[in-house]
Structures are given as structure tokens and as C-alpha cells.
Model the fold of this input.
Amino acid sequence: MIKPATGEASGLPYNNFVNICHPGYHPNFLLGSIPAFTTPSGAQGVFLGLVQDACRILANNREGVLRSQGLLMDGPPDRVLAAGEYTYHIAGDDQYPICTTFRSWLFPESVPAHWATSALGIMAPYLSCSKTYYSQTTKNQDMRCIVTGETSRLDACHLVPHAEEDWWVFNSMSIKTFNPTGIDSPPNRVTMRCDLNGRTLDEGRFVFWPLSNQVVCICMHRDIADFAKEYHVRHVIIPQRVHHFNMYARFAYDIFRTFQDTLAQFAKFGSAIPVLPIPARVPKGKKTANTDANADVDMHVNDQDSDSLSTGNGSLGSIPEESVHSPGPQYDLCRWTEEYVATAETIDAHMTGKPLEPCHEDAGVYHGFSEPLRVAFEYRKAHPNISEVVHARVALQGEEDDEQVM
Done:
């Protein structure tokens, strides 16, 4: 028996949009459009809370209200806005400036309350492993695509993209997320089908958004209308090791990608917030003073499924492939770096005088946790021949825990 051919093409162009505009110009300046796909309730449109989140990010974290033809748009986050034009207003500032790129947006001191739900991850204990195995560890822990549930053709996808490592460092994301292992480690990664990475997620074709204490996939572009029929507003289970700040940063990154064409036009005529003064990257082939002599110069060498730095149409806030951060040594069990320990000490200092929260316990973080790390680091530095064992690591899930094999 032969299976029949697939039917006619589905996912015809979708022409109904929620248009988000800036009210300080005449006519109102279009900031971006979101297709009004059909929601599970049967209503066509876009959730009010998602539009508010997107507008807040574009306004560099400033609170405002949505209006349509002068009428205030309020209500619960799951209210569905019908196709049409909506403007975002900030009290007392009609011509407020807009972030037009991810690199002009500063991560806020706190995120909206609905982004703190445990469904976005609770930063459960992270399985330490060599940097070489970050990608495989992520896939071993997730075991499937978090969107489709498929178990083949998987990639370990960054939330904050690898190409934005300088943005990560500038915004102290390792400290804010209690993750001294950095941007490439599993707490900043989720597993997805390989074709949903790159030209789909990284192009802002869909986003992850918290709805009713769950996380859902929201389709943001008409060219994936066929995908939207199956996965729009579908529940997505986020791994517990992930920090919700990384999810919020990914949402912001995707909003800038979704609206990149219209935001580029706004930057020419409107009041745009300048790019953050992020230090320049270290050119490939160069080494910084604290770079381990044995470390690979190209960060991608140590990572099996690193995200591509660009996707063909130019990357908003992306960095040319010939310029990458000079990496430090692998974060394995016995070769901690000064940067790793210093980051742990900074996290520890931020916790001084504050009560421990569940996320701290889940991450193995407690008051004074950095002290034994410092003692061990200094001792090993003073006694380089303490052990002949180098690059020891924890066995991966499904791998035989045999020192002869490892």
C-alpha cells in the first residue's frame, strides 16, 4: 500500500492584522503588525496582554495604555483584540522614543508579574557538564521538541541568541539569572525541531508567551499560517532549568525581529533610542588576558549545535560571523575560571540580607555559597599538580557512568 499524496496547499496569505502604531505622529506611525489568527475560543485577533507586552518593550520598558479610535483598551490579558489599528500611549509624552533594535533595549529591573510564572521555568538544579556537551545535555534532558513533541531532528536552541553574548554580558544576565556558566549553557537553551530554530524562531515567526499560568506558542507572521493551524496558542512545556528572565529576553528579541522592517523605517523619521554602549567584540583569532591558552578561539568549536549568527535577511542586532567573543576555558568540574567564581561572588553579594526564595534553593544557591568555590579555586591555582585528572565531568543522561569509557 502507498500513502496518498498530500492535499492542496494550506495556509493561504492572511490579510487581517492588528496594527500597532505610535500616536505621536500624523498619520500614526506603524510600529508593527500581528496577524489576527483564530484563537481556541473561535475569535480572530491578538491577545491584549501580548500587544501590551510588545509595546512596553518597544517603549524601553515604559508603562502605557492601548487605545483604538480614542477608546481605552483594557481588560484581562486574554482579551482578544480584533483586527484594526491600535495606539500605545504614555502619559505626558506623546512623542516618546522607541527602541528599534534589540541592542537598544535594556533589560528591566523587574519583569511583568505574569512573566514570573513557574510555567516559564523555575531554574531547577543544573547538571554541570563540560561546555563541549552543553548542546547534547540540553537535548538529553528535554528528549523532544518543546513545541511539536517530536523526538527527531532536534536542535538545542538558544533563548538569548549566542550572537547577542555582548548584550548578555552588558545586561549582567548571568548575575540576574543565577547562572555563572553563561549564555551557551542549558539554562539558556530549549530543544526544538531543527527547522523551527533559525529561520522560524530567530526570525520572530512565533513567540513564547505566558497565558493563564501556562506558556503558549503564538504565531506572529502570515507566512506560517499552515503552522498556525496546528500550533497557534498551543501549550508549550518549558524545562524547569530555564530562568524566566531568559524567556522574557527571548520574547523581546522576537518582537524586534517580527517588526524589524517597520522599526527600521521609524528609526529614519521618529525618535529612536540609541543602541546601548555595548563594548565591541573581540575579533576572531585574538585572545584576552584572561583567556585560557588551551581554549578554542572560535566559540562554535566547543558547541555541537550553536545557533547561526544570521539568517540571510540580515540580523537585527546580530554580529558578523568574523567577530565573536573570545571564550574562556570550559566550565567543567575541575577547571573553574576567575570569571566563573567572580560571577558567583557577585550573585552571592546581591543576596546579602535578603531571604532565600524557592528559585535559589532549586539552583543550589544559598548565602555564602561562593565562599567554598573561591577557596577551591585559589587552592587549585596554587597547586596546579593537585590531580592528574583534567576535564572531569558528570556523565550525561543515558551515558554509562564508567571512568574507563569517559
